[in-house]
Design goal:
This protein is an alpha+beta fold. 24% of the residues lie in helices and 43% in strands. The longest helix has 13 residues. InterPro entries: MOase_MmoB_DmpM (IPR003454), mOase_MmoB_DmpM_sf (IPR036889).
Length: 89
């Protein structure tokens, strides 16, 4: 049985940078572009790192900023100041 975790973002400028950063941190993930949204999924675990996003944006970035653009998530959330992790345990 598949244990896909996923995150779906509104398709906007911020989310495009975020999607790029997520794919850099998770080369095993699959990205799907749909009208008005971007879905990223992976088997069991996805990690979003603050440091990677800051490199993409060229500025400080708070992990909480991401939530403004989130449409849906699937998986258990583990979050701190440096990471947002989705996983099935």
């Amino acid at each position: 049985m598949s244990q896909l975790v996923f995150i779906v973002f509104q398709d906007n400028d911020d989310s495009r940078y975020l999607a790029e950063a997520v794919m850099d941190d998770n080369p095993h993930a699959e990205i799907q572009h749909h009208p008005a949204m971007i879905r990223i999924q992976a088997e069991k675990r996805l990690v979003m790192n603050r440091e990677t996003m800051e490199e993409k944006l060229g500025r400080d970035w708070d992990v909480q900023e991401m939530l403004v653009n989130v449409i849906s998530i699937g998986g258990n959330v583990d979050e701190d100041d440096d990471h947002f992790i989705l996983e099935w345990k």
